[in-house]
Design goal:
Elements (H helix, E strand, L loop, with lengths): L1 H37 L1 E4 L21 E8 L3 E8 L2 E8 L2 H6 L4 E3 L5 E2 L6 E7 L4 E7 L2 E7 L5 H18 L1
Antiparallel strand pairs: 1-2, 2-3, 3-4, 4-9, 5-7, 6-7, 7-8, 8-9
């Protein structure tokens, strides 16, 4: 009889440890998911990006509407706005991998890559698995991405060139 009591206690302890271990794993996953959601911090203006080392060039274009500004994951400046009947997201970061991680699965369309004429900046043209298109370029040590879900990508590429030029205008 005593043998069964000891066996019961040992089995109870093993089951208890196994359950608490699973519970800790579940809590850890939920925490990570919550951290990703909480890493979007809305800020008042593009001037709030200065601590990231990113200047005011992340503002919406002159006729853009509904502009909002965020700091994502503490290292990405983001501006969302409407322009020419499309919703855009403009991002900038010194961390290319962090920036690209926001796009999930994507493919570079080498046929649509282009070079901006005035400053000779190479621009990558990419498409995500959810049919979002984005351009990516680098000026000095900052990576920039402009994205939209549009059928006609002419506005996306033209706006990308406008942003590249505005980066250089602000540097002068």
């Amino acid at each position: 009889m005593r043998f069964f009591k000891i066996l019961f206690i040992i089995l109870s302890m093993i089951v208890s440890i196994a359950c608490s271990s699973k519970s800790a794993d579940t809590e850890k996953k939920e925490t990570n998911t919550a951290e990703n959601i909480l890493d979007y911090v809305q800020v008042d203006s593009p001037n709030s990006f200065a601590p990231l080392g990113i200047g005011i060039t992340v503002a919406p274009p002159e006729h853009g509407q509904n502009g909002k500004y965020f700091i994502v994951n503490k290292n990405i400046a983001e501006s969302t706005f409407d322009y020419m009947n499309n919703a855009y997201i403009y991002r900038a970061s010194k961390d290319k991998e962090a920036l690209l991680s926001l796009y999930g699965d994507y493919q570079n369309d080498t046929n649509k890559n282009f070079t901006e004429n005035e400053y000779k900046i190479s621009v990558e043209y990419n498409t995500t698995s959810i049919n979002e298109k984005f351009t990516l370029w680098k000026v000095d040590d900052i990576y920039y991405a402009l994205s939209a879900k549009t059928e006609d990508d002419k506005d996306l590429t033209n706006l990308s060139v406008l942003y590249i030029n505005s980066i250089h205008w602000h540097k002068k």
